[in-house]
Amino acid sequence: MQSQVVTSVLGTIGNTPVVKLNRVVPNDCADVFVKLEFFNPTGSYKDRMAKSMIEEAERRGDLKPGMTVVEATGGSTGSSLALVCAVKGYEFLVMTSDAFALEKRRTIAAFGAILDITPSPSGKVTPDLIPTMMSRAAKVANEDRFYYTEQFQNLDALIGYEDIGHELVTQFPAGIDVFCGAVGTAGMAMGVARVLKAQLPHTRVVVLEPGSAPLVTEGKTGAHGVEGIGVGFLPPHLEQSLYDEARAIDEDAARAMARRLAKEEGLLVGTSTGLNVVAAIQLAKELGPGKTIVTVAVDTGLKYLNGSLFADG
């Protein structure tokens, strides 16, 4: 974690701690560790990619003072970009939906961004929802005064996520047997995998998705309620050469695990983190004692207190 004095809040992004899980992992399993990305300023690892996308665009001259940043996002990326834009003085226009947590939309607005809401009649992330939001963003971004960060295509995002990999290499000098993580844009999983495959080549990388929308594992789309992942199309960042296996994880099990993590480990996290930990424990059972499984706590559960995640448990 950061301990030095920094010149802006952007200097507090990254260098997050790792914690071992103790009570939710059964006996006779591998050790399971979680990198606590909710220590980032907006409570999400998306701060890393927001900073790298904006700063790389500035470095190239694609983003200049006076321009407006545009993105289509379910919330966490929007909060992160809104933070970065607030610090750097850019206006920010967000294409989002009422399918995503109210807390996230309020956070985006608190940072001064403008929200364009695409309704979701079912309240779920349907296969066409995010493509519709992306289409709206692309249409607006045709004007010269806008810069579309386009998170699903933007390789600058991986630069920020690679730092998670570099930090893990330092935090686990004896190595990591398996790293697993859920995919939305797939930027985090692929950014980390780039580093681990280069520096710890024996490490297995397992990508995860909701069982109700098993596009990577089975080629099927579907509606689900896990914000930030299972976007309804194969994410362009996802490279088969960088992961060893894909698994679909039951959404109800992920929600139950998120509640257990709060009650038994003191970790208040969202459903995607619960999904990550369910998969990590599966792997820990398969590998057995003496092995090391690592995943990430994607974001803070404070973003989901108005929803049903903690209300029905």
Overview of the molecule:
The chain has helices spanning 46-60, 76-88, 102-110, 129-140, 156-171, 187-199, 215-218, 251-265, 271-287, and strands spanning 18-20, 31-36, 68-72, 91-97, 114-118, 146-148, 178-182, 204-210, 245-249, 292-297. Helices cover 36% and strands 17% of the residues. With 313 residues, it is α/β, with parallel strands linked by helices. The strands form 2 sheets. Strands 1-2-10-7-8-9 form a 6-stranded mixed sheet, sandwiched between helices. Strands 5-4-3-6 form a 4-stranded parallel sheet, with helices on both faces. α1 packs across α5 and α8 packs across α9 (271-287). The two termini are 31 Å apart. The model has no long low-confidence stretch (mean pLDDT 93).
Please count the beta strands (DSSP E, at least 2 residues each): 10
Order of helices and strands: EEHEHEHEHEHEHEHEHHE
Helix content: 25-40%
**Structural classification:** alpha/beta
Q: Averaging pLDDT over every residue, what do you get?
A: 93
Query: Major β-sheet, in short?
Result: 6 strands, mixed
> What is the radius of gyration?
18 Å
Question: Numbering strands along the chain, what is their spatial order in the largest sheet?
Answer: 1-2-10-7-8-9
Global geometry: globular
Flag low-confidence runs: none
Cα(first) to Cα(last) distance is: 31 Å
Number of helices: 9
Strand content: 15-25%
